[in-house]
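Protein modeling request. Please complete all fields; requests missing the sequence field cannot be processed.
Requester role: graduate student
Desired output: 3D structure, token encoding
Chains: 1
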Amino acid sequence: MASILPRKSGRTRRRSVVSSLSSSSTSGSHKQATRIEINGRDDIFSVAFHPDCKHIVGGGDERKVRHWRAEDGKEVGTPIDVGGTVCNIAVSQNGNWVVSGTTTGLVTVWNTESYEKVIAFKGHDKSVCAVDFSPDGTKITTGSADSTARVWSFSTGNLASERLLNYLQHNGTVSAVKFSPNGHLIATATWECDSVRVYDYENGLILVDVPIKVSSLWNQSLAWASDGKQLFTLSHDSNISCIDVSKGMARSRWSIHSNDEPRCIALANNGAFIVASANSWISFWDTTTHKQFGTTFKHTARIQSMAIGANYGLALGGGQTITVRSLCDILPPPYSDAILVERDRWRIGAEKADLEKIVVSLRAQKESSDSEIARLHDQLCDSQRGLNETIESLRTQEKNSKDELARVQEIAKQLRNQLSNREDSLNETVDLYSKITQLEETVRQLHTDNTRSHQRADGLAQIIRAHERKDECETLYDEGRVIDAAICLFTIMNTASENKCISTLEMCGDEASSAEKRDEAIAAYSTALLLRPSNPDTLLVNLKPHIGIIPSDQFEIPNLAIYRAICNVLEEVGRIAEAVKCFQQLQSELGEDMGHRNVQAQCERDDGSQPQRNDATGSVHTTMNILEQETEPIDEPEWVADFKARCFETSKQCGDDAMHTALYKDADVHYTTALSLEPSSTDLLTKRSEARAAIGSWQDSLKDADAAIKLDPSYPRGYERKHAALLGAHRYDEAIIAYNDMLLMLEKSPDPSTRGKYLLDRIEASSEHLRLADLRKRYVSPSQTMAAIRNSVKRTQRDAPLVLISTGTGRLCDKHERLNEFEGDPIFKELVASMTTRLDDFRITQTVRQFFRYGTFSHTWEGAEPLFNDVLHDSVNQLAASPPVLKLMMFCMMVRDAGLRWAWSDTCCINKADGSALQESLTSMFQWYHESALTIVHLKGVRSDSDLGALEKSFWNTRAWTLQEFFASRIIRFYTEDWKPYFPRESVYNHKDSSAIMGEMAAANGVDVQALLSLKPGSENVRQKLCLAATRTATKPEDTSYSLFGIFDVSIPVTYGEGHQRALGRLLQEVLTRSGDVTILAWTGRASDYNSCLPADIGVYREPSSPHIPSLIADDEMDRLVAELRTTPYHDSAMMLYDQLALLQSPRLASRRLSLSCIMFPVRSLSTSSRDSQHVYRAVTSALGNAEIKTTEDLSSMKNLVFVHPWLKCLLDPALPSEGPGYRR
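Delivered output (1225 residues):
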């Protein structure tokens, strides 16, 4: 359609439309949703909003807690080091304090204003999985992997060591704890033993204990309602449960329909909806209807934590990213409307509180200023008095000074005389001062030398103590107890004062070396080597400068033995990674030397010769000679191979165990250690790729998978891991290629034992009894997935409109074009790439339905509406501006804002030039409206400031087509002329759930609300439906009948121009034949040219029918009549009559001829009276008594009149209904 036809240029018209939209008063423009991305520097496990919603707190693997501004994501304050991986964070309601729990069992509290740590204490022996503040901020509750929950006292930053309650003991890890809104209750959850409990804070009694297996994430599975009477939980099997705390049981439970692992829930502040996450997906659920609403969206990584702020901001933590979005921008009306009101109310309250604080502060400042002014005034007065006194005193002093000056001058004269006499003695004094200065410098130098001597004495004392144990260490080594010798070595290193002794030894060694005292230098350096720390990296780096200078006569343990002992001890205590580092340094530092010694040893074994000593390697050879003489020979290659094999297997097993317990980062470390020993292991590369994929390191996972494929291009598991990494990185096309390559390798591989073993392990089968061809059948190919998806699309689009508007581009798309757009979307590619072992029909169906959901438009035409040919070559957004075009654009915008990709309007989505398309559209329109996700109603002439009741009187409520559109739509929303929600005080999203709006609709149609909502398409309640349609009008006369096709569920040919009588006649003919409802024939007015038994206009059905049905005979009277009938000779005749009446056919109108079973009553007398244009006759019949007949015909001249009444089967059996399709039954 639009994709294969030439497109017209619409630049000029586009500008006019945009300018019109910007100036139009009907502003319903779409808001761009704000989205803040925060880099958390490492995996984030917990996020929380500050009560003022201006800041966000988060932490995780980085072992620090950080603050960010919510408005722009910029970090503020100083990060707090909490001494372990952060499991959970909570902020007090007054915003003054933040508490965190870590994997090390530490609980840390700090001040949010100064960013200073207040206190940290060991709350549990194991990980603190959950923390929470009481509402008044005076208590902290914690939950831990040690199976306990605890409550601690906290007040103004001082944490009491006492526990306020005894340990709340559980049967497994306490993964969640939450104070109730009033602080009287504490809710806990354990995911290992399927239990959700509620405790009384005062006495610790269990009030509620419900067996629910919650999500395993830290403190993300519980949410209290604001009234504290309900507790919501997210279970491991993807169900949300609402627990009634007063009754102690789950009141309701509903599934969130997710195939992914459930992660977190958060309850909106108004309690209207719940935000739930599964893996990396977010969905929204109404807490009343338990139905999903709005659009699901995906976070950048698997979600670990979620929080909703008081301003309805949504913070999502997962991977290394925190995403902050506003729920007002995400949710559809009315949820967005309601939370906008709540957010404004909160904002006003917050601003009011801030203003109150400012007022209090200003008042305090004013009081302080007043006090300061009074104090300054007193000081000024005192200063003035003091100044006067000072002036008077100065005057007195001036007088005294003159006298004193004269006396001083006299003294000066005398001093001059004395000075001249002492010039010689002054020179002697200067020499004395110089000598004193030299003596002081000498004293300082002596003091420094004395201090240094004491320090050296202390150091040498520790050196002597270390040398005393050196002999013990060497003796253990000589006895072959290498491990014990190494432990002794570590003891020396740990007990010595490292910094002091080593620095003293190195200083002594340097001084001895400078003085060419080689023996003293060697002794100092060798002892320093023993005192190095146990960290292999530091140890080996410090060993390196001295390895070549230690001869055997000074230090009996060879360097190789030191390395080997350290490696063995590290392996013994489980520090495999450090042992491997030490081993690799051993290979690096001593590799050449080890090779040389192996050659010498081999020569000795072959011919008994001794290795020769030379100048370059003399010290090492001497060491080997001593080892051969005093200890058993060391087979170095055998030890190296054995140690390497042991570390490889241990690291591999530790990695497998970590993967089994979901400790993926630990598994990555262990596999990396194993790969450093065996880099060419394809099995380890694929395992590390799997571990890295589990923590979201998709690029590193992909590198490992590519490395495995490069080592062995025919290894299927390499392609499998590459597929998983590409899928996680959202590179779906490449993922599909990798998956196809894996299937190809499976089919081509001839050896099940080498190529298929990893698959056999996964499906628990034996490689001897299962061929690779059978393994291949266990997988689903991308082509099979595509075929299943296309079949689902075909089923979904079977009842969809022929043409829809893309809300993204504004262009018309037929079913084939919509399929192409779907297959080009990442959603389709993700479906294909993610299904490997089975076809998930439920997920396919849900995804396809979500993509192809559409919205429909119900409105009144305004003249020059944009038609099919107007939009065929152009986008809706490119049409020339006009009121109808702007209306269509606003409709598309509203549908897009509701999260729908497609929209349908009867103006431009029906090709009226195509007869078959027009016929299908008119007969299927009811079904299209019924299957739509949303129907938007635009009320022309109703403004946003209209009072309640405007809908009842609206022009929209008088049109024929809008009746069908209202009945067919499941979810409908009314908007005023200026595109504001009608009756905005109504908070329900679906206006069919609004009692006020439905009351207006019922009043407009003259029925009660229950009858209005209970009408269904088909042949039931025929007369009531005709009564509703009787007041409706249409521009084309035939449309008053064609608009009822869907309501009556009939399909007859559409022939515009046939006239309203023929159109109505054909409709009533079909309805009468299908339903058998003879009330269609009960009307007063002009007869139709189509058939005289049918009316010429549908308006005759405005009044409900009241067929004359005799009153039922009482039961006792009926029993008496039946008894009498049995005793009369007419009994058999009565039975025959009954059988004949039971066999009477239902009414049928075919080929414009009516077949109707009737009862005829002769008219005995007839009287007449005129009422306007009608004649009213009163007839007296033989059985019916008096009857009133209304007609436009003149019956006064007619004779032998007969009153005909349709036969009603209810007369034969009172148990049958008296109207409707009951006639047929």
